[in-house]
Every structure is written in structure tokens, then in C-alpha cells.
Amino acid sequence: METITVQVVIDAATEKVWDFWTKPEHITQWTHASDDWHAPYAENDVRTGGKFKTTMAAKDGSFSFDFEGTYIEVKTYNLLEYILEDSRKVKIDFIKEGDKTKVIETFDPEGTNPVEMQKGGWQAILDNFKKYTETN
Question: For residue 118, what pLDDT is reported?
């Protein structure tokens, strides 16, 4: 199965981008694809073999799920690779471009939803991350 890639260029230093991506107090502020969702809980042990979990929930309380996995490679300020609970792999590259940072996420699609829907959802979350990081 082919992987899906989403990316964004953020007007911020790589160190700030890394911190906002990895620290739970920031993760809960940007991890949602639309304004009727939020992330009320996040934990993150950023090291090879470490685990993470983010709870994503509809603001009206109708639905929630935990997005969780285990890091298989961590290179501070450069790379995060992890395996999700359903065995899909995700790779996130952080690339310094002058005073900006390009974030590229490549992930294995799940088999339930159309690829374009998955790509759109992950891109929306990445766009929220860009907006949050650039305005805080």
C-alpha cells in the first residue's frame, strides 16, 4: 500500500517547532482537524522506545479516541518515526530552511477511509499546527 505525505513550511525556528510538536501542553492546543474537535489530553515520552498518547474528542462529547504509538527512532530537531497501535508507520521530518522549518509527515493509510479523506484530515491538523506555532 502506498504511503501518504502531507507537509507545511512554518515561519519558526526548528527548535521551537520541535518543542511545540512534542510537548503535551502544546499538543493539546493544535491536534484537531476541525474546530468542533479538540485534544483534551496528551502524554509524550520522546525517545526511541518511548510511547505517546493523545486523546482526540468531539467538543460535544459524542465521540473520542486515543491516537497512540511507540517511537522507533528519534533524532532531536530532525526526525520522529513511530508505529501506531494498529501497526501503521509514521515518519516526520523537520527540515531547517533558513529561519523557517519544513515539516513533512509520511504515513501508512488505514483501510477504512478513502486516502484523500485521510490526507485531508492529516493536512488540516498540520495546518493547525502551523497556525498555532506561528502565533504563539
Answer: 96
- Counting Cα atoms < 13 Å in the Cβ hemisphere of 132 gives 21
**Could you tell me how far CA 24 lies from the centroid of its own chain?**
12
Mean pLDDT of the chain: 97
Q: What proportion of the chain, given as a percentage, has pLDDT over 90?
A: 99
Which of the listed CATH numbers 3.40.50.2030, 3.20.20.80, 3.30.530.20, 3.20.20.60 matches domain 4-135? 3.30.530.20
Give the chain's count of helices (H) and strands (E): 3, 7
Distance CA 101, CA 72 (A): 23
Low-confidence ranges of the chain (pLDDT < 50): none
User: Grid coordinates in use for 122?
Assistant: 492529516
Q: How far apart are CA 21 and CA 79, in angstroms?
A: 11
